[in-house]
TrEMBL record:
This is HDIG domain-containing protein. It comes from Streptomyces shaanxiensis. SMART domains: HDc. InterPro entries: HD/PDEase_dom, HD_domain, HDIG_dom. Pfam families: HD (PF01966). Residues 19-98 form the HD/PDEase domain. SUPFAM superfamilies: HD-domain/PDEase-like (SSF109604).
Length: 188
């Protein structure tokens, strides 16, 4: 583990493991998915893994201020944890969060406070999140989107957002899988 991941895991655990054990298992699974695609990230592999384990800390009852977990988590990481700005930005923008922010009337706040990282990193974090069940096991993005819509209800804000985001989630997954396949075809 790098210094970044050595810092990120205990922080995420302290915020999620006790109050939200299932969310903690999901976060561990998302970080595990990040390790499986490290070959396409080079020096950013540790950045992605740290962001993956921290991506849902905004659900922690201690951090939930706006009720929009990407924003709450990113603000905590920036203002309290003094986290690496790139980790903060990835947490803020994970898994098409701008679409949910728009539905909540928070898009200007999100984008005004947190710039987006390069698209390949946002794709990678979306891939990891949307290929992991709530219990932390591997899945596929179609089943994951269906599970989210079912859990929150199709007419809820989250259900509507996730269906709106589904084409971009699938496109992100496709781009990541294409990069993984291309990397595996490269001679060593």
């Amino acid at each position: 583990m790098s210094d970044l991941t050595e810092w990120a895991y205990p922080l995420a655990e302290s915020l999620l493991a006790e109050p939200l054990p299932r969310r903690w298992q999901h976060s561990l699974g998302v970080a595990e998915r990040a390790r499986t695609i490290a070959l396409i990230l080079g020096q950013d592999a540790e950045l992605l893994e740290a962001s993956a384990v921290l991506h849902d800390i905004g659900y922690s009852p201690d951090l939930a201020k706006t009720g929009f977990h990407p924003l709450d988590g990113a603000r905590y990481l920036r203002d309290v944890a003094q986290a690496d700005a790139r980790v903060v930005n990835l947490v803020a923008h994970h898994s098409c969060s701008w679409m949910e922010a728009e539905a909540r009337g928070l898009r200007e706040e999100l984008e005004g406070e947190f710039p987006r990282e390069p698209a390949h990193l946002n794709d990678a974090l979306c891939f990891c999140d949307m290929n992991t069940t709530p219990d932390g096991t591997p899945t596929n993005p179609v089943d994951r989107v269906n599970e989210i819509a079912s859990r929150y209800g199709p007419d809820s804000l989250i259900g509507t957002f996730i269906r709106r985001a589904e084409p971009e989630i699938l496109a992100s997954t496709s781009r990541v899988l294409e990069r993984v396949a291309a990397a595996k075809r490269q001679p060593m």
